[in-house]
Structure formats: C-alpha cells, structure tokens
# Entry
Amino acid sequence: MSTNMKKVWTAAVSFMCLYGTQLSLFAQDEAPAEGAQKTAGFMTIVFGGDIVSIAIWMMLFGASAATLAFIIDAMISIKRDKLIPEDLVEGVRESLNEGDLNSAIAACEENPSPLSNILMVGFSNITEGFEVIQDSISSASEYESEKLLQKVNYLNMLGQIAPMLGLLGTVTGMVAAFSGMATATGSAKATMLASAIAGALWTTCAGLLISVPALLSYTLTRNNAIRIILESESTVIDLIKTLRNAEVDAEEEEEY
# Structure
C-alpha cells in the first residue's frame, strides 16, 4: 500500500470515528416526559445486541470507512493534471518535432503517468510502422484504463454490499425480536417487539446511507476516469502523428 493511500485510510478511519462519536451523542435520548417510555440510544442499538448484530455493525462501519477512503483517493489521484501532465505533453511534442526520439523517451521517464506509459509502448514499436504503433497504443490505453478503474470498482462493490449487510442486520434483528416475544408477557410484549424492530431497521438505514454516496461517487468517478483515458489516447495519437509524417517522407525519398 502506498504512503498516500495509507494517509487516505487514516483520514477516513479518523473521520468515521469522529462521525460515530458525534452520532452517538446526538442519538442519546433526551430525558423522557413523565409516563413516556425511554427508547434505546444509538450505542445501545449497536452494542446491545448479540454477537452477530455487533459483527454486522462493525462490517457496516468498515464499509463506511472504506467508501470514504476510496472516494478521497479517487478525488486525489484521478485528476487530469496528474494523468496528462502538461510538462510531459509539451516536452514530447517539442522532442518529436525536432526528431529527437531519445529526448521524448527521457521526458516520459521523468514524468511517470498513464500517458507516459502509453507513449513508451508506442515508442517501443517505432520500427514496426504507424499502424502497429496505433494498435499498441489502443491496447496500452485499455490496460491503463483497467488499472485506473480497479480502485473505482471497489466503490461499486461497496455500494452493493452495504445495503445487503443492512438487510442482513434487519433480518437477524427481526428473528431475535420474534424469538424474544416468547419470554415477554402482556403489554410488555408489544413494546418489546416495537423497540426490537426499530433497532433492527437501523442497519438497513445505515446500509443505504453508505450505498447511495458510494454508487453516486462510482458513477461520477468512472465517467471522469474514462474521459481522461480517452483524452490520453487522443493526445498520444496527436503527438505521434509526427512519426507518420516522417515515415511518409522517408517513403517518398525512397521512390526518388
């Protein structure tokens, strides 16, 4: 795991701890009015159940922290100026216009990025002809796109798993609630059932609160990443068209 990713995860976990603490404080019940029934607080809902319920809540907290970490990482890493450095584009363009391929390769090595990786693949096939260069660039672009979208796909996974965890918590909570009715008597039975069901539904609510921003961020980030990758491929084609002109000039000289 890279240093930047460790920082992102640390920030996400810290934020979730702070958020959970604030949520638990806000969820604490106010002093009930005379004759009113006191309901369970947030901490009681999370840690007052059985081991299965606590485990589900821990997985929901983990999914929430992971979602936040991947969103922050995507915002930091998937940016045009990082994936298509202007210094690299200008340096390669000037080198190719001057016919200095070694300087273009050196510029790619000094500015590591998906764009430089695609360019290096094109340069490695320089002797195979322009059509081969285009095919290799397309393949390299697809590869870089897949690498870029790997982390983004985790947001999609979290967006689908979170509501399933929430539903699992609700189902197990309902089972426990109806099982507990066997020991309750009289009016306490209805009160106990209502309180248990309300607590069980909190997991579904938490799962949806994780899923919605995760799926929304996945869609926006994925579209942005694909747009940048397509722009990278277009930029590479624009840069290496100088090589095609050189190839055409060489063929004309051979004819004469």
Summary: The two ends are 58 Å apart (CA to CA). Residues 21-37, 246-256 have pLDDT under 50 and may be disordered.
